[in-house]
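Thread: "does anyone have the structure for this chain?"

Original post by V.I.:
We have the sequence but no experimental structure in hand. Need at least a predicted one for the grant figures.
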Amino acid sequence: MKAFVFHGPEQSAWHDVPDPGIQDATDAIVRVDSVSICGTDLHILKGDVPDVRPGTVLGHEAVGEVVEVGSGVRTVRPGDRVLVSCISACGLCRFCREGAYGQCLGGGGWILGHTIDGTQAEYVRVPFADLSVHPLPATVNSHHAVLLADIYPTAYEVGVLNGRVGPGDTVVVVGAGPVGLAAIATAQLFSPGRIIAVDLAPARLEAAKRAGADTVVNAAEDPEQLVADLTDGLGADVVIEAVGVPASFEMCTRMVRPGGRVANVGVHGKSATLHLESLWSKNLTIRTGLVDTYSTPALLRMMAAGRLPTSSLVTHDFPLHRMEEAYDVFSRAADTGALKVVLNSGPVKDRT
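Reply from O.Q.:
Generated one for you, tokens below.
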């Protein structure tokens, strides 16, 4: 089969690799119909994730059709159309029993495109299939469903739920990339008083408005003062960090009110300073997290009911064999306006 393979920092290619096969009784083999590229994949290509070994097929988000299952799989069978979760769960360890699948001790967690071959291929082996794939209703098309593999549960769990967004809250989302936009969309489920989006790119701020932000501000135009002005100097109830750089995290801690919550979603590759000299007395809650995907079934029901915006997040689509071009477009988001890039093995008939 063809797959997108990491060969070392700044080295990757779409080329032939062996077809995956069943290795364990809990495995499923899925033929990929739709797959997307994540910002984490770009971090891997830059060499920021040293756990990824050269020769690994990248990707951890996909929708496809089950073509083979191991003898221990009970919940799906060949022919089922499924969502492949970015997190795999053994279902037996302490963390899995608590629903903290991202911390799985039994061989799961974030493994696809990380410690084992991932989804940016024509076929993918999915371990622990009973908990790691989700059957899709016919009303949800593959092109949109792939957004539930990672960005929606990440934004919802690590951003909105960890931040305890509530009715009437002032919520600031720093970073209007795909995850930030999904945070804006899902924060609205809890009736906040206002949502403020912060980003450097005008195109992303426009996307934030479409996703439901009440106010947008360029990060270069003193968003801290704007937040202070809108809250009578108090600060935001919830600030969601969705960038992953030290300056944005430190800005978030300055914009939150005493007793407020900072939810860090961004993937950080460099140290950020925690200014306890000014924060120690503010009664803050700062939450970090790797997505667990426990919310995926609920989000899938919301998508099937038309309660989640999807089409505005997908800005580019490509056939699967144009993976290298898709990476180029996604990596130059400031120039191309790319938000979420989706690749398909066949034509996309419905993107509404």
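V.I.: this helps a lot. The CA atoms of residues 62 and 146 lie 5 Å apart.
O.Q.: and The domain at 2-150+293-344 is CATH 3.90.180.10 (Quinone Oxidoreductase; Chain A, domain 1).
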